[in-house]
């Protein structure tokens, strides 16, 4: 499977994804991943940034609200339609384009920083994505991205729950088995069944890599590791959103910041 095939799948799901995410059902994003990502992000006020794999633009808008001049790309034009609609309703100066992370339509050394929120593990040609991010960054610029945690979002995964339905452990396995586009079928677990009723399941392709593969890809691209985080929801967050309780047991997500040398 290449990025062209991945495009077809994401484009197909973009409308339902946007509807559910904007209704507040992407709870791991809203309660955990996005706050942790922005806590890790350096000050981007006045900087020019490229958001790679922007989806419906939720996190793109938050980047712009931090004072960055933001350009954003996604391979799925249906997502870009929703992003541009939001930009029309609330103009933030964001320039959205349909483009693949594998072939970024920008000159070398254009941006001060680049971001990817939960999109890089969805792209088969990840070495090319990192090379492209490196190319369009100015010397000294940084790339920050989040991915499903390679150690805990493994091909085999099962939540083990106690009598109260609380997760106390995650059974994991097949860490080393490459999936290369195996399809996961799912919908946002926080969406109630009457909302999910009639919606086809997302069928998203998975391209898992081990921790050493990710780190060696970054090293081989010439990007210097600067910061690593594994977000964990606080007890207060779990009280506000019980659906993310299992993310207290293991790290579901991995956030990395790397820098292009000067
Ligand atoms: C899990 S969604 C995340 C969307 C968004 N970043 C968010 O956090 O809500 C993954 C996104 O990556 C995009 N994507 C997949 N392959 C891509 C590629 N080669 N180039 C650009 N975007 C891509 C998909 O279309 C989708 O919008």
Any overview of this molecule?
The chain is an alpha/beta fold. It has helices at about 5-20, 25-40, 60-65, 75-90, 125-135, 195, 210-220, 235-240, and strands at about 50, 70-75, 95-100, 110-115, 135-150, 155-160, 165-175, 180-185, 200-205, 225-230, 255-260. A hairpin with a 5-residue loop joins strand 6 and strand 7 (about 165-175). It is globular, with a radius of gyration of 18 Å. Bound molecules: S-adenosylmethionine. S-adenosylmethionine binds near residues 74, 79 and 101.
Describe how the helices and strands are arranged.
Elements: H1 3-22, H2 27-40, E1 48-52, H3 58-65, E2 69-74, H4 77-89, E3 95-98, E4 111-117, H5 126-136, E5 137-148, E6 156-161, E7 167-173, E8 182-186, H6 193-196, E9 202-206, H7 211-221, E10 224-229, H8 235-240, E11 253-259
Parallel strand pairs: 1-2, 1-4, 2-3, 4-5
Antiparallel strand pairs: 5-11, 6-7, 8-9, 10-11
The chain binds S-adenosylmethionine.
S-adenosylmethionine (SAM) is lined by residues 3, 6, 10, 29, 53-55, 58-59, 73-76, 79, 100-102, 117-119, 122-123.
Strand content: 25-35%
Run of helices and strands: HHEHEHEEHEEEEHEHEHE
Count, helices: 8
Bound chemical compounds: S-adenosylmethionine
Q: Return Rg in Å.
A: 18 Å
Instruction: Outline the biggest β-sheet.
Output: 7 strands, mixed
Low-confidence stretches: none
Structural class: alpha/beta
Strand order, main sheet: write it out: 3-2-1-4-5-11-10
Total number of strands: 11
Mean pLDDT score, rounded?
96
| Gross geometry | globular
